[in-house]
UniProtKB/TrEMBL annotation:
Source organism phylogeny: Bacteria, Pseudomonadati, Pseudomonadota, Alphaproteobacteria, Hyphomicrobiales
PANTHER family, per the entry: BIOFILM ARCHITECTURE MAINTENANCE PROTEIN MBAA, DIGUANYLATE CYCLASE DGCP
GGDEF domain ranges (all copies): 307-442
Claim: Nucleotidyltransferase is one of the keywords in the record: no
UniProt domain EAL: residue ranges: 451-701
Listed Pfam families: 4HB_MCP_1 (PF12729), EAL (PF00563), GGDEF (PF00990), HAMP (PF00672)
Species the sequence originates in: Prosthecomicrobium pneumaticum
GO biological process: signal transduction
Segments passing through the bilayer: 12-35
Gene Ontology CC entries for this record: membrane
Keyword line: Membrane, Transmembrane, Transmembrane helix
The HAMP domain, residue ranges: 208-261
Gene3D superfamilies: 3.30.70.270, 6.10.340.10, EAL domain (3.20.20.450)
Name this protein carries in UniProt: Diguanylate cyclase (GGDEF)-like protein
Length: 709
C-alpha cells in the first residue's frame, strides 16, 4: 500500500483514487466471499430440509406402514369374521409400502450419501413371501406366526438402520453448515480489521504526505512575504499537486531575478537589432539605408559649408562566374574579404557601405590639395587592393572592380542624382575594359539616355518582328559548294540605320528578350529554307542565357515541327562560356537535342576554356575555330600555330572543323592544306537576305565559292 501511495510516483488525486479502489476492492472481495458462504449455508439448510427430513419422513411412514401391516395380520389371525376386509386392508398397506419405497428412491435419486433401500427391500420381500404362504395356508398356526414375526422384525430393523444412516448424514450436513457460519463470521471480522487498517493508513499518509508538506510550503511563503531570503520552496521534487504548487511558488520566487535578466537581454537584443538594421549581415559594413543617410548628410554639408565630396560606386568584375561556378559560400568569402580591404583603405571619417550583391559605395570628403587627384589615388588603391588574389582553401580567386565617381555638388545636389551619376560612370568603366575608374561626365548621361531609347526601340522591333534573318554561307572546303547557312540577326533601325549585332544582341540578353528574338529568327529561317533543297542546313547560335533553360529542346523541336523543318538539317552553336555556369543542365539539353537529330557545334573554340573535358563529355558534332585566330594568321605565327593545333586535335578526335572569318585566298588555301573541313567569312560570302541566299545556291554560282565576296 505504501508503494502504491508513493508520492514520487502518483499525484494526490491518483493516490486517493488508488486507496478508494483498493478499499472498495477489499470490501467487494470480502462481500463476495461472505455472500458465497451464505449461499452455501442456505443450500445446505435447504438440503437438510428438503432431502434429509423428507427421506426421514418417508422412512418413518414406511415403518408405520409395516407396523400397520403386521397389526392387520395379527387381527386376521385372531378373528376371521371380517377376513375379506382385513385382506383388502393388507393389500392397501402392501401397495402403500411399495409406493413409499418408490418415493424414497425418487428422493434418493442415486445419492450414495443416503441409505440404500436394498436391505429393506430384501427383508420385505422375504416377509411378503412368508405372508403370502401364510394366507394360502389359511392364516393360522403358531409356527407361521413366528415366521411372520421374524420377517417383520428384519424389515423394521432394516428401516432402523436406514434411519440411523440418514440421521448421521443429516448431522454431518448440519455440522458443515455450522463450520461455514463460523468461517463467515471470522471472515467478516477480518474484513472489518483490514478496512480499519486501510483507513488508519490513509489518515497517516495524508498527514505525512499532504498536511506536513503544505505546512512547510506555507511557512516558506510566509517567510518570503516577510522579506526573508528563501533559497527554495520545499516540495519541488514531488510529482503531485503539492509538487506542482511548490514549483509554481518556486517560479514565482525566481521570477524577480529572471525578469531582471530578461530586461538586460532585451536591451542587448535591441542594441543588436539596431546594429543589424544599420549594417550588412554578411560583411558588417553599413547597409544601403545608412549609406543614404550619410550621403544626404554629406550633401547638406556640401551645400551649407562648401565642402566637396566624392561619391564612388564599386561593382566587382568577374564575381558572377566565381559565385555561379564555385558556389555561394566562396562568393560570400570573397565579399567579406573585399569589405575588409575596403575598410583598411578608406579613411575613418569617410563612409564605405555595401549596397547589395557585389556592389559597394564610398563617400569621401575631398582632400585639402587637388580633390580630383586625391580621389584618383583612392580609386587606384581600391582597385589594386581588390585585384589581389583572395585565398580560398588551397587555391585563390581573382576579381576586379569597376568604379564610377560623381562629385557633390557638381554632378548632383541630392542623393538620388549623385548615385545615378556614379552608376552611369561605373557603367562606362565596365564598358571601357573593367578594373578601372571613370568620373561622371554629362555626355555619359546622354549616352545612357540614348541606350534607354535604343532598348525601347529594340523591345518594339522584336515584338513586331522587324529584326530580319540574314544568311552567311557555310562552305565545304573540299569542293567549294555551299552546304548550309548560319542564321544571323540584322536590324535596320528606321532612324539609326543598320545597328551592329554586337550592340543589340547583348542588349536583348540584358532585357530578357533574347529567346523571343531567337525563336522569331528560327521560324522565319525555316520558312525561307523552303526555297532551298532539302540537304541545305541551318546553323543557329544559342545564347548562354537560353542554355540554362531545361525547356529549350522542347521549344526548338516544337518550332521545327510546326514549320515542317527536319531536325537533322539544324545545327546549334554554343560557346564554352555558356557551358561552365551549369554544365549538368547544358549537357542534358544538348543530349536531348542530339537524340532528336539536331547537330551541336562548339563555337569560338580557342577563346574560352578550350577544355578537352567538354569535347569528350558533350560529344560535339563540329568545332568552330574563332575568327580572331583565323583573321590574324597572316600576321601572327602564334595564331597560325593555334589554328594548326586545333585542326590537328579535332582530326585526332574525329571532329570536323569550321574556320570563321576567312577574308582572303591565302588563308583559305592554308586552311584547306591542313585539312580544315568547312569555312565561312567575307571571302566565301557575306551575310545576305533570303532572296540573295537563293541566288547563292544557284547552280551557276555553286561551283565557285571564292568569287562571292
Amino acid at each position: 500500500m505504501s508503494h502504491l501511495l508513493d508520492r514520487k510516483r502518483l499525484s494526490i488525486s491518483a493516490r486517493l483514487t488508488v486507496f478508494a479502489v483498493v478499499f472498495l476492492g477489499v470490501v467487494a472481495v470480502l462481500g463476495a466471499l461472505s455472500l458465497n458462504r451464505l449461499m452455501v449455508i442456505d443450500e445446505q439448510t435447504e438440503a437438510v430440509r428438503d432431502r434429509w427430513l423428507a427421506t426421514a419422513r418417508v422412512l418413518n411412514n414406511l415403518e408405520e406402514a409395516v407396523s400397520s401391516f403386521r397389526i392387520a395380520e395379527a387381527d386376521l389371525a385372531r378373528s376371521t369374521a371380517a377376513r375379506e376386509v382385513t385382506i383388502a386392508r393388507l393389500d392397501v398397506l402392501r401397495r402403500e409400502i411399495e409406493t413409499l419405497g418408490q418415493r424414497y428412491e425418487a428422493l434418493r435419486n442415486g445419492d450414495t450419501s443416503r441409505a440404500s433401500l436394498a436391505g429393506f427391500t430384501m427383508a420385505w420381500q422375504t416377509y411378503l413371501a412368508t405372508h403370502d404362504a401364510w394366507l394360502l395356508g389359511g392364516a393360522s398356526g403358531d409356527r407361521e406366526q413366528q415366521a411372520l414375526d421374524r420377517g417383520f422384525d428384519r424389515s423394521i430393523m432394516a428401516l432402523d438402520v436406514m434411519a440411523d444412516i440418514q440421521a448421521d448424514a443429516a448431522e454431518f450436513e448440519i455440522d458443515r453448515a455450522d463450520r461455514l457460519i463460523d468461517e463467515t463470521i471470522a471472515l467478516t471480522l477480518a474484513g472489518v480489521a483490514i478496512g480499519s487498517l486501510l483507513v488508519l493508513t490513509l489518515l497517516y499518509r495524508i498527514r505525512q504526505t499532504i498536511a506536513k508538506p503544505l505546512a512547510a510550503i506555507m511557512d516558506a511563503l510566509m517567510r518570503l512575504a516577510a522579506g526573508e531570503c528563501v533559497q527554495s520552496v520545499p516540495g519541488t521534487e514531488r510529482r503531485d499537486e503539492i509538487g506542482a504548487m511548490a514549483r509554481a511558488f518556486e517560479v514565482f520566487r525566481a521570477n524577480a531575478a529572471a525578469l531582471e535578466r530578461a530586461h538586460e537581454e532585451t536591451r542587448a537584443a535591441q542594441k543588436q537589432a539596431q546594429s543589424l538594421a544599420r549594417h550588412d549581415a554578411l560583411t558588417g559594413l553599413p547597409n544601403r539605408r545608412v549609406f543614404s543617410v550619410e550621403l544626404q548628410a554629406a550633401v547638406a554639408r556640401s551645400l551649407g559649408e562648401g565642402i566637396s565630396y566624392a561619391v564612388m560606386l564599386l561593382d566587382l568584375d568577374r564575381f558572377k562566374p566565381v559565385n555561379d561556378i564555385q558556389g555561394h559560400a566562396v562568393g560570400d568569402t570573397v565579399l567579406c574579404e573585399v569589405a575588409r580591404r575596403l575598410r583598411e583603405i578608406v579613411r575613418r571619417e569617410d563612409t564605405v557601405a555595401r549596397l547589395g550583391g557585389d556592389e559597394f559605395a564610398v563617400v569621401a570628403a575631398a582632400d585639402g590639395g587637388d580633390p580630383r587627384e586625391g580621389v584618383m589615388r583612392l580609386a587606384s588603391r581600391l582597385i589594386a587592393a581588390i585585384r589581389e588574389p583572395i585565398a580560398i582553401g588551397d587555391g585563390a580567386v581573382e576579381v576586379g572592380a569597376s568604379i564610377g565617381i560623381a562629385w557633390c555638388p557638381a554632378d548632383g545636389r541630392d542623393a538620388e542624382s549623385l548615385l545615378r551619376a556614379a552608376d552611369i560612370a561605373m557603367y562606362r568603366a565596365k564598358r571601357d575594359g573593367r578594373s578601372t575608374y571613370r568620373f561622371f561626365e554629362q555626355s555619359m548621361d546622354e549616352e545612357l539616355r540614348d541606350r534607354a531609347a535604343l532598348e525601347a526601340d529594340l523591345r518594339k522591333a522584336i515584338g513586331e518582328e522587324r529584326l530580319e534573318p540574314h544568311y552567311q554561307p557555310l562552305v565545304d572546303m573540299r569542293d567549294g559548294h555551299v552546304y548550309g547557312f548560319e542564321v544571323l540577326a540584322r536590324w535596320n533601325h528606321p532612324t539609326r540605320g543598320w545597328i551592329r549585332p554586337d550592340v543589340f544582341i547583348p542588349l536583348a540578353e540584358q532585357i530578357g528578350l533574347i529567346s523571343d528574338l531567337t525563336w522569331s529568327l528560327l521560324r522565319r529561317a525555316c520558312r525561307d529554307s523552303r526555297q532551298w533543297s532539302d540537304d541545305i542546313r541551318l546553323a543557329l547560335n544559342i545564347s548562354p542565357v537560353q542554355l540554362k533553360d531545361p525547356l529549350l529542346p522542347n521549344q526548338i523541336l516544337g518550332i521545327l515541327a510546326e514549320e515542317g523543318f527536319a531536325p537533322t538539317r539544324l545545327e546549334i552553336e554554343v560557346t564554352e562560356t555558356a557551358l561552365v555556369s551549369d554544365l549538368k543542365t547544358a549537357k542534358a539539353i544538348l543530349s536531348s537535342l542530339r537524340s532528336n537529330g539536331v547537330r551541336i557545334a562548339l563555337d569560338d573554340f580557342g577563346t574560352g576554356y578550350s577544355s578537352l573535358y567538354h569535347l569528350r563529355e558533350l560529344k560535339f558534332d563540329k568545332v568552330k575555330i574563332d575568327r580572331s585566330f583565323v583573321q590574324s594568321m597572316q600576321t601572327s605565327s602564334d595564331s597560325r600555330k593555334i589554328v594548326d593545333a586545333i585542326v590537328s586535335l579535332a582530326k585526332t578526335l574525329g571532329l570536323p572543323t569550321v574556320a570563321e572569318g576567312i577574308e582572303d585566298k591565302a588563308v583559305l588555301d592554308h586552311l584547306a592544306s591542313i585539312g580544315c573541313d568547312f569555312g565561312q567569312g567575307f571571302y566565301l560570302g557575306r551575310a545576305m537576305p533570303a532572296e540573295a541566299a537563293v541566288e547563292r545556291l544557284d547552280p551557276h554560282d555553286a561551283g565557285g565559292a571564292r568569287g562571292a565576296a
